[in-house]
Design goal:
Layout lengths: L10 H20 L3 H8 L3 H14 L17 H13 L13 H12 L5 H10 L12 H18 L20
Length: 178
């Protein structure tokens, strides 16, 4: 699985791909064609060409894995602290209602750990650690009353007739024209 829940390659998969690149490098040194290498290693010709260019610029060392693209900014211990703070609820952190939003979690991370995340970064962090967006199971009863009252009282006043009631002609000429 390449990107499970927003993550990158697993360590095993990363080592496997590095091995493929190093095997291709041995064959580059022998002068083999890119198409033959791609067929034997079961990769695309374009990947082999890209690897050949990297190999010619920096040798086999340039084909080694660079490690993960980015390390998580919150450690496991810090994320455990974040979860503990989230379970206390938004009211414990100064918000009036009991609703966590991504921007509120972002603000709390900034206050607690002195780290800045984007809203999408907070979403990816939470999803990667098993959290998901929650939606209420039922709509609030108060909403139904408000909508029903608006439909009865406001909508009839706001809805005006869109066209005249008497019949008209769709043609631009008048019916009594010669």
């Amino acid at each position: 699985m390449r990107y499970p829940q927003g993550g990158g390659l697993t360590a095993e998969r990363q080592q496997y791909r590095e091995g493929l690149r190093l095997r291709a490098a041995e064959r580059f040194a022998l002068g083999e064609a890119s198409a033959a290498i791609a067929k034997d290693l079961r990769v695309s010709v374009r990947s082999v060409q890209r690897g050949r260019r990297t190999w010619s610029d920096g040798g086999p060392r340039a084909l080694r894995s660079q490690g993960p693209a980015a390390l998580p900014r919150l450690s496991h211990r810090q994320f455990a602290q974040l979860e503990a703070e989230l379970t206390k609820g938004p009211a414990a952190h100064g918000w009036e209602d009991q609703r966590w939003t991504l921007s509120r979690v972002k603000t709390m991370i900034g206050r607690r750990f002195h780290l800045t995340y984007t809203v999408q970064g907070v979403r990816k962090l939470l999803v990667r650690n098993g959290w998901s967006c929650q939606v209420p199971v039922r709509r609030a009863m108060e909403r139904d009353d408000a909508v029903a009252g608006w439909v009865k009282e406001v909508w009839p006043c706001a809805e005006g007739s869109r066209r005249p009631v008497e019949p008209g002609w769709s043609l631009k000429t008048r019916p009594d024209s010669p």
